[in-house]
Amino acid sequence: MPPHPHCHWRGLQDWKTFGLDFSTSSDEACKMFDACLTQMVNRYDDESVGGTEGCMKNMFQADPNFLIGHALKLGATFQFVHKDYAHAQEVYKLAEMAKQPHVKPWEQKHAQAVVYLSEGKLDKASDVWEDILVENPMDMMSLKFLHDIYVVNGGSQGLRDSCARVLPYWKPDTPFYGDLLGMYAFGLEESNMYAKAEKTAKQALDINRYDAWAAHCVAHCKEMTGEYGEGIKFMEETEKNWNDNGLLCHNYWHWALYHFENGDFETCMSILDNHVLPFMKSKKTMFSVTDVASLCFRLEAEGFDMQSRWSECFDVAKDHIEDNIWSYYDLNTMMVCLGSKHKDEADRLVASIKATIKEGKGDNAQVYSEVTLPLMEALNAYDDGEYDTAVEILKPLKYHIWKNGGSHAQRDVFNIFAIHAAMKSKLPENQRYANHLLMERKSQKESTPLADRLLQKLVISH
Ligand SMILES: [Fe+2]
Q1: Rounded to the nearest whole angstrom, what is the distance from the C-alpha of residue 425 to the centroid of ligand 1?
Q2: Residue 318: exposed, middle, or buried by beta-carbon count in 10 A (0-12, 13-18, 19+)?
Q3: Same structural domain for residues 390 and 309?
C-alpha cells in the first residue's frame, strides 16, 4: 500500500498551529505520534517508520512520559481494567501522570477519557472526548476514539454528528481531511442518509483512493439500498486499493454479503474460503471471527454444512470466551460455540455474561442484561430446534438490537436469524411473522433477492 497522503509528520510547533499544544518538549515524539495516529486511522503499517509498533517504540524512546502518546496507546487497546491487571496498571499510571502541573488541560481530559473507557464506561468516555473537540476541533485522536466507541455502542447519530460538528473547522489541505470525510460518510450511512453518505465517501476516495474505510462506507451504502450488482462492481473495481489494508477481511465480507443476498452461494463461499477465513486464521482477531461467523450463520441457515469453518472459528474464539468486551463479539462467539458443537463453552460464555451483569461494572452490564443474554437464549433455543421459543424471545428485542453495536449490515444477521426461526416454527402465527419480516425487508431496499426467495419458500411450504 502506498504511503498515506499525509506523511510529513508534524513536530511540536506544527501541531500548535492546529491548536494542539503538547506538554512534551520532544519534536520527535510529536512526529511519531502523528505517524502512529495516521496508521491507526488508516489501519495499515507504514514500513518507512517501522509500522505502528515500531513507531510507538520510537515515540516512547523520544519521550517516555509523553502523555498523549500513552493515551493513544491505551485508548486503542480496548481492554477493561477489571479483566486485565497489566492494562489496569498502565491506565492508572497514566491517570497519575496527568496530575503533573505541566500537563495541559486537554491532555488531562484525554487521560480521563482513557480511564473511563478502560473501566467500561463508554458513555462517560465519549462525553469527555466530545468535550475535547469543542475546544480542539482538529483533534483526530478524539474523533477516532469517538468513532470506535459509537461503533461499539451503536451510537449512529454520534458517528455522524461528532464528525459533522468539526468538519467546518477543517480545510481540504488539513492532514486527515479525507479520513474525516470517510468517517463522516460512515456516520451518515449508519444514520440511513445513504445518498449523502456515498457522495461524501467518494469525496474521501477522490483525495485518497486507498482509503479503505471510505471504500467500506460505499460498500455499506450498496448493501443497505439493495444495489448488490453495483456493490459487486464497486468491489471488483477497487479491490486492489484496499486488499492489503487491515480492513481487507471485512471488505471481502461485505463483498460476500452481496453474493449471499443474490443467492450466488458458490461465489459467497469462495470469498469466505479464499479471503475472509485465511485472514482470520492468520490474524486471529475477534473482529475477523465475527466476519467469518456471521457468514457461516447465514449460509447454514440456507442449508449449507459449515461444520469445518465453525471449528476453525472456534480455534480462534475459544481464547476470548470470557473477554466480555463487546456484546457483538460475544454474540458471534455464541454462534461459534453452538455451530462448532461446543455446548459446554457456550454455557461458559453465558455464565460469564451473567457474572458481568451481576458485577454491574461499566455500560456492558445493562446491555448484556437487556439484549445480549436474551439473544444468547434465543440462539440456544434455535440450536436446540425450539424455534417457537426463539421467536418468542426475539420479538420484543427487535427494536433494541442496535444496542449490541456494530453496523446495520453486521446486525442484519439477527434479522436473518429471526426470519429463519419464524420460518422453521410450525406455528401459523410465526409463519405469518416471517412473512411480515420479509415484507419489511422488501420495503427497505431497491431489491432483495433474499426476501424474494424466502417468500417463495414460505408460499411453497403452505
Ligand atoms: Fe462494515
Answers
A1: 31
A2: middle
A3: yes
Q: What is the chain's percent helix, strand, coil content, to nearest 5? A: 75, 0, 25
Q: How far apart are CA 4 and CA 306, in angstroms?
A: 39
Say whether both 414 and 281 belong to one domain. Answer: yes
Is the same domain home to 220 and 272?
no
54 & 144 share domain = yes
Q: Summarize pLDDT for 373-431 with one digit per residue, the tens.
A: 999 999 999 999 999 999 999 999 999 999 999 999 999 999 999 999 999 999 999 99
With a threshold of 0.90, does the pTM exceed it?
yes
Asked whether residue 1 carries a pLDDT value surpassing 90, the answer given is no
Going from the Cα of 403 to the center of ligand 1, the distance in angstroms, rounded, reads 17
Rounded mean pLDDT of the chain?
Answer: 96
Rounded Cα distance between 227 and 222, Å, is: 5
- Give me 359's grid cell: 458485577
251 C-alpha to ligand 1 centroid (Å): 7
CATH code where residue 341 lies: 1.25.40
- Number of domains forming the structure of the chain: 3
- Asked if residue 139 and residue 165 are part of one domain, the reply reads no
- Domain membership of residue 43 as a residue range: 1-149
